[in-house]
Amino acid sequence: MKYSLENKFFRFKNKLESKNILVYIFMIAIVIFTVYPFIMLIGNSFGFSVHGFNFTLDAYKKCFQNKDVLCATKNTIYVAFSITILSGFLGISLAFLVNKTNIFFKKIIKTLIFITFIIPSYIMSVAWIEILGHNGYLTKILLKYFGVTNSFQIYSLEGVIIVMSLHLYPLVFMTVSNALKNIDGSFEKSAFLCGAGKKKVFFTIILPMIMPSILSILLFVFSRAISCFGVAAVLGLPVRKYILTTYIYSFLSFGDLKFSAALSTMLLISSGLLFFLSNLYLKRRQYSYKVVSQPNPNTYSLGRGRIHLSFLVLIFLFITAVIPIVAIIGAAFLKKWGIEIKLSNLTFNNFKYILFEEEMSIRAIKNSILYGFIAATASSILGMIISYISMRTRFKFRKLMEFSSSLTMASPETIIAIAAIFAWANKPFELYNTKWIIIVTYIVVCIPFVIKNINGLMSRIDKSLENASKVSGASFITTFKKVIIPSIAPGIMTGFILSMIFALREIPVSVLLYSRGCETVGVLLFNLRSDTGGLEVVSAVALVVIILILIGQFTIEKFGIAKRS
């Protein structure tokens, strides 16, 4: 009897130890795939590599002595601050109008703002070229009917600022809207009962309570602005207006990898610091109060200006959301970009060309879907395991594992791609010039999408459900399949679809990592900007991408599996 009990004890102990070993192996694998590329990037900037160790600061000295780097840095700061201010103004203003006033057309306004956000910024920049470019729709109308030449140059830093601001302000809108919705209406009512006016209530109650959310999202927008690539490339590179990401991309062609690594490291640190500061500020600057009733925001009357302001907002959204999409659709069906839009000049041949005739475009669409599916599946499985270990176990390094897997959220995609070059170009991981370097990079970028969507659901699972399953004799695997997975399935599906959408809309990762035969939609769009195919072909590709993205977003909304932040 004693012998059998001892055997059972040792078998149980061995099981626990084997599980811990598996968790450690899993953690090491995650660190290799997520942290190792950044270590190689930073190490190469200081002279360390797989070929040897030769500590030097020459690359950093070269960065600080290079006048072009200084100019690109100034441009980056100018663009980032301008985008932050403009998107902040638009997002906060619209959030207040929609959530705190009696403005008309609220549902339409929300829908148009959301459409502005989900359309990739690179595609929006193409649309604005078709509207404001030298041969653009608006340029032609001004010249033909008013005899006025369009003086605004879309190919400029100002063009980058406008397009990126229109793409990012919905983030500010959504964040501030959530903050406004969560304010308990009793605070405002109490202030009004005490004799406070609308201005005083706004500046002493509403604004202080939403300020942490405002500052946090503006810091995040600033970090995204300094790392933008696609828009800056299509609108800045033709006129040699560089920001840091496009300068790094241009300089890679010269083959000075240490210089690129040093510049990338500085941008990585800056962007990462801003990202973590925004999260830290949001955590520390939260107001605590006891909610005595459900949030019931008061709405303020706009008075006589209600109709005028409502139509003004609709006109703005029509210009910034509807017209660019109409421009893309119109150009996609033209026989040749620049000719008059009339029935005889419309054709389906552009779609026939990219979907059935042109080998590169067919291959690029197939690759994007295939790479996206593989990456989405892998990131969903890995993200689910990481989330479970972090939220439901006592593993000593569980938070370190989650932190490591989330590093890419704070990193510009351009820098992630350059880090991948340093990590996977040499032994023991030679993935460069293969499709796997793109897929692996997609996976590490997409894992945080899954974790973010699963963590909230995982925290709501009552542990008594797992305990009841174990008491009933179910194994860990059975409990995981029957209890955990069904509870977090919406988060898994959302993360999967978001990962697929990322594969369709991203540009810098593919542009920097692809080789012949491994082109993606991002590469196709980026290369076509100066190709002989013209804007009509670019627009056809863009329209296909928009449709696929809208299908993904509709799936998320339809099945109620999106947990918007």
From TrEMBL:
Keywords annotated in UniProt: Cell inner membrane, Cell membrane, Membrane, Transmembrane, Transmembrane helix, Transport
Chief site of localization: membrane
InterPro entries xrefs: MetI-like, MetI-like_sf
Cell inner membrane in keyword set: yes
Origin: domain of life: Bacteria
Record protein name field: Iron ABC transporter permease
PANTHER family membership: INNER MEMBRANE ABC TRANSPORTER PERMEASE PROTEIN YDCV (PTHR43357:SF4)
Membrane disposition: Multi-pass membrane protein
Residue stretches spanning the membrane: 21-43, 77-99, 111-132, 152-180, 201-222, 259-282, 311-334, 369-391, 403-424, 436-454, 483-504, 537-556
Protein family membership: Belongs to the binding-protein-dependent transport system permease family.
Coiled coil location: none
Keyword Ubl conjugation among UniProt keywords: no
Location of the ABC transmembrane type-1 domain: 73-278, 365-556
Compartments in which it is found: Cell inner membrane; Cell membrane
